[in-house]
Design goal:
Elements lengths: L1 H19 L4 H16 L4 H5 L4 H19 L2 H10 L8 H16 L2 H19 L4 H14 L7 H12 L6 H22 L26 H20 L3 H14 L5 H7 L2 H20 L1 H10 L7 H15 L2 H9 L3 H8 L4 H14 L7 H8 L7 H30 L2
Protein backbone atom coordinates (compact mmCIF):
# COMPACT_ATOMS: atom_id res chain seq x y z
CA UNK A 1 0.00 0.00 0.00
CA UNK A 2 2.75 2.59 0.72
CA UNK A 3 4.15 1.90 -2.75
CA UNK A 4 0.73 2.45 -4.29
CA UNK A 5 0.39 5.80 -2.50
CA UNK A 6 3.91 6.76 -3.59
CA UNK A 7 3.24 6.05 -7.26
CA UNK A 8 -0.13 7.83 -7.10
CA UNK A 9 1.59 10.77 -5.43
CA UNK A 10 4.03 10.88 -8.34
CA UNK A 11 1.13 11.10 -10.80
CA UNK A 12 -0.66 13.80 -8.80
CA UNK A 13 2.59 15.77 -8.57
CA UNK A 14 3.06 15.52 -12.33
CA UNK A 15 -0.50 16.78 -12.90
CA UNK A 16 -0.03 19.71 -10.50
CA UNK A 17 3.30 20.64 -12.11
CA UNK A 18 1.65 20.55 -15.56
CA UNK A 19 -0.89 23.12 -14.31
CA UNK A 20 1.58 25.66 -12.99
CA UNK A 21 4.91 25.07 -14.74
CA UNK A 22 6.34 25.21 -18.25
CA UNK A 23 8.30 22.00 -17.62
CA UNK A 24 7.26 19.28 -20.05
CA UNK A 25 5.34 16.91 -17.81
CA UNK A 26 6.30 13.94 -20.01
CA UNK A 27 9.95 14.36 -19.02
CA UNK A 28 8.99 14.65 -15.35
CA UNK A 29 6.75 11.58 -15.65
CA UNK A 30 9.57 9.46 -17.09
CA UNK A 31 11.89 10.53 -14.26
CA UNK A 32 9.22 9.69 -11.68
CA UNK A 33 8.54 6.33 -13.35
CA UNK A 34 12.24 5.43 -13.16
CA UNK A 35 12.66 6.50 -9.53
CA UNK A 36 9.45 4.93 -8.23
CA UNK A 37 9.65 1.79 -10.35
CA UNK A 38 13.33 0.92 -10.00
CA UNK A 39 14.34 2.31 -6.60
CA UNK A 40 11.09 1.80 -4.66
CA UNK A 41 9.18 -0.83 -6.62
CA UNK A 42 12.04 -3.25 -7.32
CA UNK A 43 11.33 -3.18 -11.05
CA UNK A 44 14.02 -3.50 -13.69
CA UNK A 45 14.70 -0.63 -16.06
CA UNK A 46 13.37 -2.85 -18.85
CA UNK A 47 10.05 -3.21 -17.02
CA UNK A 48 9.74 0.57 -16.79
CA UNK A 49 10.73 1.16 -20.42
CA UNK A 50 8.22 -1.48 -21.58
CA UNK A 51 5.55 1.05 -20.68
CA UNK A 52 6.62 3.33 -23.53
CA UNK A 53 3.77 3.39 -26.11
CA UNK A 54 5.72 2.58 -29.27
CA UNK A 55 2.73 2.17 -31.57
CA UNK A 56 1.07 5.32 -30.26
CA UNK A 57 4.31 7.27 -30.70
CA UNK A 58 4.69 6.14 -34.32
CA UNK A 59 1.04 6.83 -35.13
CA UNK A 60 1.14 10.32 -33.67
CA UNK A 61 4.40 11.08 -35.44
CA UNK A 62 3.13 9.94 -38.83
CA UNK A 63 -0.21 11.72 -38.67
CA UNK A 64 1.15 15.02 -37.36
CA UNK A 65 3.94 14.98 -39.97
CA UNK A 66 1.48 14.52 -42.83
CA UNK A 67 -0.87 17.27 -41.71
CA UNK A 68 1.90 19.66 -40.76
CA UNK A 69 3.06 19.40 -44.37
CA UNK A 70 -0.50 20.03 -45.59
CA UNK A 71 -0.77 23.06 -43.34
CA UNK A 72 2.60 24.54 -44.31
CA UNK A 73 1.91 24.43 -48.05
CA UNK A 74 -1.40 26.25 -47.58
CA UNK A 75 -3.79 23.45 -48.57
CA UNK A 76 -5.92 23.58 -45.42
CA UNK A 77 -5.93 27.37 -45.41
CA UNK A 78 -7.14 27.47 -49.03
CA UNK A 79 -9.94 25.04 -48.27
CA UNK A 80 -11.02 27.20 -45.32
CA UNK A 81 -11.01 30.45 -47.32
CA UNK A 82 -13.13 28.98 -50.08
CA UNK A 83 -15.61 27.59 -47.57
CA UNK A 84 -16.04 30.97 -45.83
CA UNK A 85 -16.93 32.53 -49.19
CA UNK A 86 -20.08 30.38 -49.25
CA UNK A 87 -21.61 32.66 -46.57
CA UNK A 88 -21.90 35.52 -49.12
CA UNK A 89 -21.87 38.24 -46.47
CA UNK A 90 -24.47 36.82 -44.05
CA UNK A 91 -23.11 37.72 -40.60
CA UNK A 92 -25.20 35.14 -38.78
CA UNK A 93 -23.91 32.29 -40.94
CA UNK A 94 -20.23 33.18 -40.60
CA UNK A 95 -19.65 31.89 -37.03
CA UNK A 96 -21.67 28.78 -37.89
CA UNK A 97 -19.45 28.24 -40.93
CA UNK A 98 -16.35 28.48 -38.75
CA UNK A 99 -17.83 25.90 -36.38
CA UNK A 100 -18.36 23.56 -39.33
CA UNK A 101 -14.89 24.35 -40.70
CA UNK A 102 -13.27 23.69 -37.34
CA UNK A 103 -15.07 20.39 -37.00
CA UNK A 104 -14.67 19.31 -40.62
CA UNK A 105 -11.04 20.24 -41.21
CA UNK A 106 -9.96 19.07 -37.77
CA UNK A 107 -11.71 15.72 -38.28
CA UNK A 108 -9.72 15.06 -41.44
CA UNK A 109 -6.52 14.84 -39.40
CA UNK A 110 -5.10 18.10 -38.04
CA UNK A 111 -7.16 17.88 -34.84
CA UNK A 112 -8.42 20.64 -32.58
CA UNK A 113 -5.25 22.56 -31.73
CA UNK A 114 -3.73 22.68 -35.22
CA UNK A 115 -7.09 23.59 -36.73
CA UNK A 116 -7.65 26.39 -34.22
CA UNK A 117 -4.14 27.71 -34.90
CA UNK A 118 -4.86 27.75 -38.63
CA UNK A 119 -8.35 29.25 -38.53
CA UNK A 120 -8.25 31.61 -35.54
CA UNK A 121 -6.43 34.54 -37.22
CA UNK A 122 -8.81 34.47 -40.19
CA UNK A 123 -11.91 33.92 -38.03
CA UNK A 124 -11.21 36.78 -35.65
CA UNK A 125 -10.28 39.14 -38.51
CA UNK A 126 -13.54 38.28 -40.27
CA UNK A 127 -15.41 38.89 -37.00
CA UNK A 128 -13.89 42.36 -36.79
CA UNK A 129 -14.95 43.25 -40.35
CA UNK A 130 -18.44 41.84 -39.98
CA UNK A 131 -19.05 43.39 -36.53
CA UNK A 132 -19.44 39.95 -34.98
CA UNK A 133 -18.63 39.94 -31.23
CA UNK A 134 -15.25 38.22 -30.86
CA UNK A 135 -16.60 36.24 -27.91
CA UNK A 136 -19.25 34.61 -30.10
CA UNK A 137 -16.75 33.85 -32.84
CA UNK A 138 -14.30 32.34 -30.34
CA UNK A 139 -17.01 30.10 -28.90
CA UNK A 140 -18.07 28.82 -32.32
CA UNK A 141 -14.58 28.31 -33.71
CA UNK A 142 -13.11 26.88 -30.50
CA UNK A 143 -16.01 24.53 -29.88
CA UNK A 144 -16.04 23.46 -33.53
CA UNK A 145 -12.36 22.61 -33.32
CA UNK A 146 -13.01 20.76 -30.08
CA UNK A 147 -15.72 18.73 -31.79
CA UNK A 148 -13.06 17.34 -34.13
CA UNK A 149 -10.65 16.33 -31.38
CA UNK A 150 -11.70 12.68 -31.12
CA UNK A 151 -11.75 11.90 -34.83
CA UNK A 152 -9.95 8.59 -35.43
CA UNK A 153 -7.62 10.54 -37.76
CA UNK A 154 -6.78 13.36 -35.33
CA UNK A 155 -3.89 13.24 -32.81
CA UNK A 156 -6.10 13.32 -29.69
CA UNK A 157 -8.44 10.74 -31.19
CA UNK A 158 -5.47 8.50 -31.84
CA UNK A 159 -4.31 8.95 -28.25
CA UNK A 160 -7.76 8.21 -26.83
CA UNK A 161 -8.37 5.19 -29.05
CA UNK A 162 -4.94 3.82 -28.18
CA UNK A 163 -5.69 4.18 -24.47
CA UNK A 164 -9.11 2.57 -24.89
CA UNK A 165 -7.63 -0.33 -26.83
CA UNK A 166 -5.20 -0.82 -23.98
CA UNK A 167 -8.00 -1.17 -21.42
CA UNK A 168 -10.11 -3.48 -23.57
CA UNK A 169 -12.50 -0.89 -25.01
CA UNK A 170 -11.34 -0.97 -28.61
CA UNK A 171 -13.73 -0.84 -31.55
CA UNK A 172 -15.69 2.18 -30.36
CA UNK A 173 -13.80 4.85 -32.30
CA UNK A 174 -16.81 6.24 -34.15
CA UNK A 175 -19.10 6.21 -31.12
CA UNK A 176 -16.43 8.11 -29.20
CA UNK A 177 -16.12 10.63 -32.01
CA UNK A 178 -19.82 11.23 -32.65
CA UNK A 179 -20.80 11.63 -28.99
CA UNK A 180 -18.11 14.30 -28.69
CA UNK A 181 -19.40 16.05 -31.83
CA UNK A 182 -22.98 15.98 -30.51
CA UNK A 183 -21.97 17.40 -27.13
CA UNK A 184 -19.94 20.22 -28.67
CA UNK A 185 -22.67 21.04 -31.19
CA UNK A 186 -25.29 21.29 -28.42
CA UNK A 187 -23.07 23.59 -26.38
CA UNK A 188 -21.94 25.72 -29.34
CA UNK A 189 -25.32 26.35 -30.95
CA UNK A 190 -27.10 26.65 -27.61
CA UNK A 191 -24.58 29.24 -26.44
CA UNK A 192 -24.54 31.04 -29.79
CA UNK A 193 -28.29 31.57 -29.82
CA UNK A 194 -28.64 32.26 -26.08
CA UNK A 195 -25.87 34.89 -26.16
CA UNK A 196 -27.35 36.85 -29.05
CA UNK A 197 -26.08 35.15 -32.20
CA UNK A 198 -29.59 35.13 -33.64
CA UNK A 199 -29.42 38.93 -33.95
CA UNK A 200 -26.57 38.64 -36.47
CA UNK A 201 -28.91 37.14 -39.06
CA UNK A 202 -30.59 40.54 -39.34
CA UNK A 203 -27.41 42.27 -40.52
CA UNK A 204 -25.35 41.78 -43.67
CA UNK A 205 -21.60 42.01 -43.30
CA UNK A 206 -19.24 43.90 -45.54
CA UNK A 207 -16.44 41.80 -47.05
CA UNK A 208 -17.08 39.29 -44.31
CA UNK A 209 -15.18 36.52 -45.98
CA UNK A 210 -12.09 38.63 -46.15
CA UNK A 211 -11.75 38.05 -49.85
CA UNK A 212 -9.69 35.31 -51.41
CA UNK A 213 -6.42 37.12 -51.37
CA UNK A 214 -3.43 35.74 -49.54
CA UNK A 215 -0.37 33.65 -50.03
CA UNK A 216 -2.32 30.46 -50.53
CA UNK A 217 -5.62 31.72 -51.98
CA UNK A 218 -5.10 30.02 -55.37
CA UNK A 219 -5.60 26.27 -55.22
CA UNK A 220 -2.62 25.17 -57.30
CA UNK A 221 -1.16 21.79 -58.30
CA UNK A 222 0.67 21.28 -54.98
CA UNK A 223 -2.61 21.77 -53.12
CA UNK A 224 -4.44 19.29 -55.34
CA UNK A 225 -1.66 16.73 -54.87
CA UNK A 226 -1.72 17.27 -51.11
CA UNK A 227 -5.50 16.94 -50.93
CA UNK A 228 -5.37 13.79 -53.05
CA UNK A 229 -2.73 12.23 -50.77
CA UNK A 230 -4.69 13.11 -47.61
CA UNK A 231 -7.91 11.65 -49.02
CA UNK A 232 -6.04 8.53 -50.17
CA UNK A 233 -4.71 8.01 -46.65
CA UNK A 234 -8.20 8.41 -45.17
CA UNK A 235 -9.78 6.05 -47.70
CA UNK A 236 -7.06 3.44 -47.15
CA UNK A 237 -7.74 3.52 -43.42
CA UNK A 238 -11.54 3.46 -43.72
CA UNK A 239 -11.87 0.86 -46.46
CA UNK A 240 -8.48 -0.80 -46.77
CA UNK A 241 -7.88 -1.55 -43.08
CA UNK A 242 -4.53 0.24 -43.30
CA UNK A 243 -2.76 1.35 -40.13
CA UNK A 244 -3.30 5.10 -39.94
CA UNK A 245 0.21 5.85 -38.68
CA UNK A 246 1.96 3.86 -41.39
CA UNK A 247 -0.37 5.20 -44.08
CA UNK A 248 0.37 8.75 -42.91
CA UNK A 249 4.12 8.10 -43.08
CA UNK A 250 3.68 6.85 -46.65
CA UNK A 251 1.64 9.94 -47.53
CA UNK A 252 4.29 12.22 -46.03
CA UNK A 253 6.94 10.49 -48.15
CA UNK A 254 4.86 11.06 -51.31
CA UNK A 255 4.50 14.77 -50.54
CA UNK A 256 8.22 15.06 -49.92
CA UNK A 257 9.11 13.09 -53.06
CA UNK A 258 6.94 15.32 -55.26
CA UNK A 259 8.31 18.40 -53.47
CA UNK A 260 4.86 19.85 -52.86
CA UNK A 261 5.58 20.43 -49.15
CA UNK A 262 8.58 21.51 -47.10
CA UNK A 263 9.44 18.20 -45.44
CA UNK A 264 12.30 19.47 -43.27
CA UNK A 265 10.32 22.43 -41.98
CA UNK A 266 7.38 20.14 -41.24
CA UNK A 267 9.59 17.91 -39.10
CA UNK A 268 10.73 20.98 -37.16
CA UNK A 269 7.17 22.27 -36.73
CA UNK A 270 5.69 19.00 -35.47
CA UNK A 271 4.24 19.08 -31.92
CA UNK A 272 7.12 17.16 -30.38
CA UNK A 273 6.36 18.56 -26.93
CA UNK A 274 2.87 17.04 -26.96
CA UNK A 275 4.11 13.71 -28.31
CA UNK A 276 6.75 13.56 -25.56
CA UNK A 277 4.17 14.58 -22.97
CA UNK A 278 1.74 11.81 -23.90
CA UNK A 279 4.45 9.16 -24.14
CA UNK A 280 6.04 10.10 -20.81
CA UNK A 281 2.77 10.15 -18.87
CA UNK A 282 1.88 6.76 -20.37
CA UNK A 283 5.15 5.34 -19.02
CA UNK A 284 4.27 6.61 -15.53
CA UNK A 285 0.72 5.19 -15.80
CA UNK A 286 2.28 1.81 -16.64
CA UNK A 287 4.30 1.96 -13.42
CA UNK A 288 1.12 2.85 -11.50
CA UNK A 289 -0.55 -0.25 -12.92
CA UNK A 290 2.28 -2.45 -11.66
CA UNK A 291 2.57 -0.86 -8.21
CA UNK A 292 -1.13 -0.65 -7.31
CA UNK A 293 -1.33 3.11 -7.69
CA UNK A 294 -3.89 2.95 -10.51
CA UNK A 295 -6.17 0.74 -8.42
CA UNK A 296 -5.92 3.24 -5.58
CA UNK A 297 -6.71 6.12 -7.93
CA UNK A 298 -9.73 4.21 -9.22
CA UNK A 299 -10.98 3.61 -5.69
CA UNK A 300 -10.78 7.31 -4.90
CA UNK A 301 -12.77 8.18 -8.04
CA UNK A 302 -15.36 5.49 -7.30
CA UNK A 303 -15.94 6.93 -3.83
CA UNK A 304 -17.16 10.17 -5.42
CA UNK A 305 -20.08 8.74 -7.40
CA UNK A 306 -22.68 6.03 -7.94
CA UNK A 307 -23.48 4.08 -11.11
CA UNK A 308 -26.23 6.64 -11.77
CA UNK A 309 -24.04 9.74 -11.40
CA UNK A 310 -20.62 8.52 -12.55
CA UNK A 311 -20.75 10.03 -16.06
CA UNK A 312 -21.52 13.49 -14.70
CA UNK A 313 -18.97 13.17 -11.90
CA UNK A 314 -16.03 12.17 -14.10
CA UNK A 315 -16.93 14.84 -16.68
CA UNK A 316 -16.80 17.46 -13.93
CA UNK A 317 -13.49 16.26 -12.48
CA UNK A 318 -11.72 15.96 -15.82
CA UNK A 319 -13.11 19.35 -16.85
CA UNK A 320 -11.79 21.08 -13.75
CA UNK A 321 -8.29 19.62 -14.19
CA UNK A 322 -8.27 20.20 -17.95
CA UNK A 323 -8.78 23.95 -17.51
CA UNK A 324 -5.22 24.13 -16.19
CA UNK A 325 -3.60 21.05 -17.69
CA UNK A 326 -3.14 19.36 -21.05
CA UNK A 327 -6.25 17.41 -22.06
CA UNK A 328 -4.56 14.93 -24.39
CA UNK A 329 -1.14 14.85 -22.71
CA UNK A 330 -2.07 14.60 -19.03
CA UNK A 331 -5.77 14.38 -18.17
CA UNK A 332 -7.00 11.61 -20.47
CA UNK A 333 -3.88 9.39 -20.15
CA UNK A 334 -4.34 9.62 -16.37
CA UNK A 335 -8.10 9.04 -16.19
CA UNK A 336 -9.05 6.68 -19.03
CA UNK A 337 -7.10 3.68 -17.62
CA UNK A 338 -9.33 3.83 -14.51
CA UNK A 339 -12.55 3.05 -16.42
CA UNK A 340 -12.64 -0.78 -16.07
CA UNK A 341 -11.85 -0.51 -12.36
CA UNK A 342 -14.55 2.13 -11.88
CA UNK A 343 -17.19 -0.10 -13.45
CA UNK A 344 -16.09 -3.01 -11.26
CA UNK A 345 -16.07 -1.01 -8.02
CA UNK A 346 -19.38 0.69 -8.74
CA UNK A 347 -21.00 -2.60 -9.58
CA UNK A 348 -22.18 -1.53 -13.01
CA UNK A 349 -22.16 1.12 -15.69
CA UNK A 350 -21.34 1.45 -19.37
CA UNK A 351 -17.54 1.69 -19.63
CA UNK A 352 -17.65 3.36 -23.05
CA UNK A 353 -20.11 5.97 -21.74
CA UNK A 354 -17.84 6.68 -18.76
CA UNK A 355 -14.82 7.03 -21.05
CA UNK A 356 -16.80 9.31 -23.38
CA UNK A 357 -17.86 11.48 -20.44
CA UNK A 358 -14.20 11.88 -19.49
CA UNK A 359 -13.35 12.82 -23.07
CA UNK A 360 -16.19 15.32 -23.41
CA UNK A 361 -15.78 16.91 -19.99
CA UNK A 362 -12.07 17.45 -20.58
CA UNK A 363 -12.58 19.01 -24.04
CA UNK A 364 -15.57 21.30 -23.44
CA UNK A 365 -13.48 23.61 -21.22
CA UNK A 366 -10.80 24.12 -23.88
CA UNK A 367 -12.28 27.39 -25.17
CA UNK A 368 -11.05 28.95 -21.93
CA UNK A 369 -8.20 31.44 -22.58
CA UNK A 370 -6.10 29.34 -20.19
CA UNK A 371 -6.20 26.54 -22.79
CA UNK A 372 -4.39 26.55 -26.13
CA UNK A 373 -7.51 26.76 -28.31
CA UNK A 374 -8.99 29.68 -26.38
CA UNK A 375 -5.65 31.47 -26.24
CA UNK A 376 -5.29 31.25 -30.03
CA UNK A 377 -8.73 32.77 -30.53
CA UNK A 378 -7.85 35.56 -28.12
CA UNK A 379 -4.57 36.22 -29.92
CA UNK A 380 -6.40 36.65 -33.22
CA UNK A 381 -8.57 39.57 -32.07
CA UNK A 382 -7.83 42.62 -34.22
CA UNK A 383 -9.28 45.32 -31.90
CA UNK A 384 -7.01 45.78 -28.83
CA UNK A 385 -9.83 47.18 -26.71
CA UNK A 386 -11.81 43.94 -27.15
CA UNK A 387 -9.08 41.65 -25.80
CA UNK A 388 -9.63 42.09 -22.05
CA UNK A 389 -13.46 41.83 -22.12
CA UNK A 390 -13.22 38.77 -24.36
CA UNK A 391 -10.63 37.21 -22.04
CA UNK A 392 -12.99 37.62 -19.07
CA UNK A 393 -15.95 36.19 -20.94
CA UNK A 394 -14.00 33.22 -22.29
CA UNK A 395 -12.66 32.54 -18.80
CA UNK A 396 -16.18 32.55 -17.37
CA UNK A 397 -17.32 30.34 -20.27
CA UNK A 398 -14.51 27.83 -19.66
CA UNK A 399 -15.27 27.50 -15.95
CA UNK A 400 -19.00 27.22 -16.60
CA UNK A 401 -18.33 24.30 -18.96
CA UNK A 402 -17.25 22.15 -16.00
CA UNK A 403 -20.83 22.20 -14.71
CA UNK A 404 -22.45 22.26 -18.14
CA UNK A 405 -20.32 19.31 -19.24
CA UNK A 406 -21.25 17.33 -16.13
CA UNK A 407 -24.99 17.86 -16.62
CA UNK A 408 -24.81 17.29 -20.38
CA UNK A 409 -22.86 14.03 -20.03
CA UNK A 410 -25.28 12.79 -17.39
CA UNK A 411 -28.22 13.56 -19.69
CA UNK A 412 -26.56 12.10 -22.79
CA UNK A 413 -25.35 8.86 -21.28
CA UNK A 414 -27.67 8.23 -18.32
CA UNK A 415 -31.00 9.68 -19.46
CA UNK A 416 -30.88 9.49 -23.27
CA UNK A 417 -28.58 6.47 -23.35
CA UNK A 418 -26.22 7.42 -26.21
Amino acid sequence: MPLAWLSLGALVTAIVVSCFSRLNVGILAVAFAWIVGVYFGGMSLGDVVDGFPVQLFLTLTGVTLLFTQAQLNGTMDSVARRAVGVCRGNSGLIPITFFLLGCGIGSLGPGNIATAAMLAPMAMAVAGRARIPPFLMAIMLGTGAGASALSPFAPTGIIVNGLMNRIGLGGHEWRTYWTNVVAHAIVAFGGYLALGGWRLFRAASVEAAGGSSGAHADFGPRNWVTLAVVLTVIVSVLFGNANIGMAAFAGAVVLAAFRVADHEEAVRRMPWAVILMVSGVTVLISVLEQTGGLELFTALLASMATPETITGAVAFVTGVISIYSSTSGVVLPAFLPTVPGLVERLGGGDPVAIASAMNIGAHLVDVSPLSTVGAMCLAGITAPEAVRPTFNRLLAWGFSMTGVGAVLCWLMFRVVGL
